[in-house]
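$ fold --in a.seq
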Amino acid sequence: MEIRILHLKEGAAMAEGTAVIIDVFRAFSLETWLYEWGAEMIYPAADLVLAYRLKQEHPDYVLIGERHGKILPGFDFGNSPSTVNPEKIRGKTVVHTTSAGTQGVSLASGADEILSGSLLNASAIARYLKQKNPDIVSLVCMGWEGQKDTEEDVLCAEYIRSILEGHPLEDIAEQAENLKYTEGKKFFDPSQQDVFPQGDFAMCIAHDRFDFVIRMEADGDLVRTEKVLI
């Protein structure tokens, strides 16, 4: 198995084999929570116009997402796990659009298979990859808006790689907690609590909390997701 760590939108476009599109703060941490809360289906949408169209066609869909971190007009929730009401998610179809993670999914058209990536299910992702044993694994760190690397996505990629290579990072809990001093410091900034509430931080760094992966595949102009227990 050849393991490649790629970066940003350019890396997503270069992804081959099985691609893991990583967005820890916060897109794919949030989608992991949404499935844990009982979402029926999640459609990650790169295109904002598509997201609004789906909501118009299906008023019962839950619209979640952001641009530049902020909730979008007419959306039910922003891209913030600590502010989503789980009772509004159970049994629902969610349309989710973000500035980085969902963009990466759209760009990774050269991959044979796509998974979302987060610290919450990193070990489950590694187990899935070991079972499938693809020739190439592309771990794509989407960073901030797909344009600037961020520490949490690189850490997640390195952690998944370390498990695949048989020597898991022993200090993953400490490294995840220390993200509060780098990219995660925004969650502790009193002036940004409306966009990056502190509660999101703990919900995004709880490594290996869940034993499932999220697979993604094209369905016409949509991307369908599937929760797969591992």
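$ fold --in b.seq
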Amino acid sequence: MNIRATSNPLVRAAGHWLERVNDRHPWSHNDHFHPWILRSLPAAPTRVLDVGCGRGELVGALIPRAGLVEGIDPDAAMAYATATRFRSEPRVHIARRTLTEQAGDPARAGQYDAVTMVASLHHMDTATALAEASALLRPGGRLLIVTLTRPRTRADHAWDVLSALMNPLIGLVKHPRLVRPTDRQAEPAAAAPPVRDPQLTIDDLREAAAELLPGARIRRRQGFRVTLSWRKPVT
């Protein structure tokens, strides 16, 4: 049973209850993996590219760790918001650009110590994006991906159920203070990133990685996420 799309009334009622709990103790499923990305970076990276930088949360986390942080996003509102946020930071460069455009510049080939993607891979063609990211990396550079996938197998659906049950528990740990509706009304409005349901399955990702990124490590994670880490061989 696909708990994300089921019409079963009991499952949907349980899902609505979990949503209410999550709203009261919210946590970012994407930001949750920033520590994993920071731990997985090569030592003292000089140049890092964040693909699909959104509002710049990961860019901000990367600044203390990298000499130069570049963020790209094809969405004009996201690129503008992040560029404005870091306009006084000389070690950050933000551009409205696709990964294909970035990789199409010969001057950028093999220039990055790390390329990161958080919740952006499923917006692109998987094989093309993996190949382009690989081309941008220096030998020994790291590709670090956090992505959403579509459940297809029984194992996928079982992990979805476990993620749904873990979600409120993680929220209680990360955000123990109860959030009330009045708290949300007081928050300034922020540009919303584009949303797309994933068509990519974990098996699709494994198949593409086996061909393009031999030795890549792919793991199911909490929060309905999957991570991929790969080190470009040094030839």
